[in-house]
Specification:
The chain is mainly α. It contains eight helices and two strands. A two-stranded antiparallel ribbon has the order 1-2. α1 packs antiparallel against α2 (about 40-55), α3 packs antiparallel against α4 (about 75-85) and α4 (about 75-85) packs antiparallel against α5.
């Protein structure tokens, strides 16, 4: 028997009470587990079913009851294991509910693909199961949302990688430009001392070109002496007396 819908998801949780017509230790433990379950003591109920399973490890009903109690306790991973263990020996009547409840546990675990497959299996065995159809649609929508979100995250990661690659390339280019500029400056500094001697040599050559020969220097001195003699004549010819003041005739 299945319980009401919760959070837009149908959940089958009530344990089956099958296969315990004769009184005995296992039957008493199973009955006790059912009472604990009805009281909302789900983990205690699951532990009671586990003790019964030690005596009957292959009993599908005990696995089923344990799985539904674990589901209610919020231990979805253990519930999935218990319900899957029940499938090995489950009757045809029990299999649709097992597939349905395994689908619910996988839905809660976020395994929407696994949940979809289990709901489909339940519908193959019972095509009129409206709850399984509803849950199948829910799982398909959740899977689509999950895939879209995953694609967005992958795109963000790719964009981040591209941005990091561009930043790295830009830093490398800047570093290469700096190194090239530094090399160019060092090369210019290394070339400057080599140019100075050449300039000095050219200056020396210019000085040599301006250097006069002995004959030219002698001729220049004679010319200067002649000019000096001429100047002396001119000086001698100049009046030596002080000029007299001219008195005006008023």
């Amino acid at each position: 028997m299945r319980v009401e819908r919760r959070l837009a998801l149908i959940v089958a949780l009530t344990p089956l009470l099958l296969g315990f017509s004769l009184p005995g230790g296992v039957e008493r433990m199973c009955a006790r587990g059912n009472r604990l379950y009805e009281q909302g003591k789900y983990q205690e109920a699951a532990d009671t079913y586990a003790r019964a399973l030690k005596a009957r490890p292959d009993d599908p009903t005990l696995h089923y009851n344990q799985g539904t109690a674990l589901y209610q306790a919020g231990n979805f991973q253990a519930a999935d294991q218990a319900l899957s263990a029940a499938m090995a020996e489950a009757t045809k009547e029990l299999q649709p509910d097992l597939h349905y409840n395994i689908g619910n546990t996988r839905y809660r675990l976020g395994d929407f693909k696994g949940a979809i497959e289990q709901y489909k299996q339940a519908l193959r065995l019972n095509p009129d199961d409206a709850e399984a159809k509803y849950n199948l649609e829910m799982a398909q929508r959740k899977l689509k949302e999950q895939q879209e979100k995953q694609q967005e995250e992958e795109q963000k990661q790719e964009q981040q990688k591209d941005q990091e690659k561009q930043d790295k390339e830009r830093q490398q280019n800047q570093q290469q430009d700096q190194e090239a500029s530094q090399e160019e400056q060092e090369q210019q500094q290394a070339e400057q001392p080599q140019e100075q001697p050449a300039q000095q040599s050219q200056a020396g050559q210019a000085t040599d070109e301006k250097t006069l020969s002995k004959e030219q220097a002698a001729a220049l001195l004679r010319a200067l002496a002649a000019d000096d003699a001429a100047m002396q004549k001119i000086i001698r010819r100049a009046p030596m007396a002080e000029p007299r003041a001219v008195e005006k005739d008023w």
